[in-house]
Design goal:
The chain has 184 residues and is mainly beta. Helix content is 10%, strand content 59%. It contains 1 helix and 8 strands, in the order H-E-E-E-E-E-E-E-E. A hairpin with a 3-residue loop joins strand 4 and strand 5.
Amino acid sequence: MNRLLFAAVAAASFIPAAAAAQDDAGSPRRIEPYVGVMGGVDNYDSETGKEGIPPVGYKGRMVEGVAGVNYNVAGPLVVGVEGTASKGVSGNVDWEYGAAGRVGVKAGKDSLIFGKVGYRWVNFDALGPDSPDFHGTIYGAGVEVSAADLGSSAASSPVRLRFQADTLGNFRSIRPMAGVVAKF
């Protein structure tokens, strides 16, 4: 766990250095910070995994805040890091937080298809107020669709509709999410 978290922080530290070394005159922005709000469901299966998820089929609806930064490497290739914090609004999940690295390919005028790998911590309401946090590696994929690709005449748009799904550990959960992200 500590190695993965250290690797994510180390990777994130190189992005500002690369940005400072470039000349932005006449070129597209290489660094794109973003924030967003998403909603969805986290549904855990009833098997116990090495992550120690309790052997009960927990489920919860949640609202999530996301913040990250993308770096346009070359052509359509994009790499980035992001952090998330989620609050359960119904069901068994109290809260979740995590960090992930992303790799994506730009599509259309300003949309993005991406995959991500990271780490997430989860706390369940159903286990009581002093329950331990459960954690594990996450894997996921998604798409961010730009308003410019939905028929707008603009060449680019800072707002994207985001749809993604990810899983915790050895496919112990499925977590579809949808929302809006905005780059600045």
